[in-house]
Amino acid sequence: MLIRKFFLHVSRKEQKKRFLERIDNPEKHWKFSASDVHERKYWHDYMAAYEDMIQHTATKHAPWYVVPADNKWFTRVVVASAIIDALASLDLHYPEVDTEKRKALALARQALLEEA
């Protein structure tokens, strides 16, 4: 089993910018909750809790990747790269086709070619 966990860290400054954009843009109103502003008062408590959680739940087999997420394009590149590396570590291969299966494929091919 392969497990990778990603914590997308948005800075306080970027979070404020995104909240203001959600308030100013009617198409993004659905993304905003007034409680978000209240919760920002506890930013440092949340950061300490996240750090504690990451330190206590990261393992060799299920590591955390703390990814800067102020720039979405960069975040996507980092996450995609980690996923590609994880998949490459599996050393996956297509199944090998044995002689019996090749014969069955040849018969199926012939049947399809003879079909009207």
Folded structure, characterized:
The protein is mainly alpha-helical. It has a single domain (5-114), classed as Rossmann fold (3-Layer(aba) Sandwich). 59% of the residues lie in helices and 9% in strands. The chain has a two-stranded parallel sheet.
CATH topology: Rossmann fold
- Terminal Cα separation, in Å? 47 Å
Strand % is 5-15%
Q: How many discrete domains? A: 1
Q: Rg to the nearest angstrom? A: 25 Å
Structural class of the helix and strand makeup?
A: mainly alpha
Helix content: 55-70%
Shape: elongated
Which CATH architecture would you pick? 3-Layer(aba) Sandwich
Oligomer: single chain
Number of strands: 2
The number of helical runs is: 5
Average of pLDDT: 96
**Largest sheet, order of strands side by side?**
1-2
Order of H and E elements: EHHHEHH
Q: What is the C-level CATH assignment?
A: Alpha Beta
Write a brief caption for the model.
This protein has 116 residues and is mainly α.
Lay out the secondary structure:
Elements: E1 5-9, H1 12-24, H2 34-39, H3 43-57, E2 64-68, H4 72-89, H5 99-114
Parallel strand pairs: 1-2
Q: What structural keywords apply?
A:
59% helix; 116 residues; mainly alpha; 2 strands; Rossmann fold
